[in-house]
Amino acid sequence: MKFTVAIDGPAAAGKGTISRAVAREFGFAHLDTGLLYRAVGAKGGNPVLAAQGLTPDDLARDDLRSLQAGEAASRVAVIPEVRAALVAFQRDFARRDGGAVLDGRDIGTIICPGAEVKLFVTADAETRARRRWLEAGEGAASYDDVLRQVRERDTRDMGRADAPLRPASDAVILDTTEMSIAQAVDAAKASIAAKIAQTQGQKQP
After folding, report:
1. Looking at the domain assignment, is residue 205 inside a domain?
2. What is the rounded CA–CA span in Å between residue 96 and residue 190?
3. pLDDT mean for each 10 residues of the chain (205 residues)
4. Contact 32, 15 (CB under 8 A)
5. Contact assessment for residue 111 and residue 83, using Cβ atoms and an 8 Å cutoff
6. What total number of domains does the chain contain?
7. Whole-prediction pTM value?
8. What is the sign, positive or negative, of the torsion defined by CA atoms of 121, 127, 128, 132?
9. Domain region containing 167
10. Is residue 204 part of a domain?
11. Per the domain annotation, does 146 fall within a domain?
């Protein structure tokens, strides 16, 4: 079965947690597309060449979840040639047999506009900054610094000319500001289960 779930949203909204949970629930493969950009940014040097030569080992680095890697990812993601180099990889992954969940910032709008399910996971900037700050732990940037970084990244991601961050017109919006993790995951599962049931019903003779 080919079935694509596209999950988009800004930093620290919860899309990664939701994506991993629904992939496990439905037995789909999962790709955190942000890791592609984080790996390109972390490699340094010419970002276009880094994107074109990306390997699985690059995605296995243990520093890709750092605040610094996130900032680097946002900077290289505005480069059209970098985005173009990574599009084919993502689209091939999305249509693999057995179903796939991809989370990122332009999955439902650019990478997989025909995805069977599109979710846009969001939350207010203060909530997202608090989550990211707590995730980073002691010794990292202050909450105020993290909030500033979140707002700056939102501005870059939403304002870039190529594939700006925005919900697809047919995406289901999940605002997790006041949601627990369990509530957000349950809402996502319900949307996916309903579409699977609809799809299977349409295939019945």
Report:
1. no
2. 23
3. 95 94 97 91 94 86 87 89 89 93 95 97 97 80 92 91 91 96 97 94 68
4. no
5. no
6. 1
7. 0.84
8. negative
9. 4-190
10. no
11. yes
